[in-house]
Amino acid sequence: MTKISLGHFLFSSCRWSKDSEWETSTVGADLEWKKIVEPVMSLYREATDGSSIEPKESALVWHHQDADPDFGSCQAKELLDHLESVLANEPAVVNRGQHIVEVKPQGVSKGLVAEKVLSRMIDSGESPDFVMCVGDDKSDEDMFQSILTSVSNPSLPVAPEIFACTVGRKPSKAKYYLDDTADVLKLLKGLGTATISKPRCLPRLKVSFESNA
User: Which CATH architecture describes the domain 32-105?
Assistant: First the structure.
């Protein structure tokens, strides 16, 4: 089975095994908009106790998970509107996720990276037999949809097994859900154990599914 690791989707990075080098695309190379975003986020960080700014190579993220829930949510909505206004003519998009407001380059998403990985595997004759995809916020929905679309490719000799899972019970394109990140870690440890040798007993884990139709 081919194992693929995805890096942070904003800079479209991936590697094909733990021993290979990361491959990084040049999508979103124009990052001049960061000079506009950073001072705006700084104002909201100073005005919101418990909030913080996470600078990434190709993105800026304002976190408010440690702020007062009601005030943090209100500030996030205001920041979202503010950034959308000042970035109207810039090659960047603003998204609100789970306790975050994120600005990233236009035309980049987890869905595009997932599609790139699966397409490359198919083109190289190494069609996947199992695809696992786990995420916890709105930005992951593109990834779930992309995987479902890619595996329906008629050039695939056999349709792979799909395990698309969202974290937390909510409407999603993913068929399954886990309650929290602790369950995600249990799942990954169980899979890691299973790939080495058949375990006598995997960790107890509730993986639930529901129809979102």
Answer: Alpha-Beta Complex (3.90)
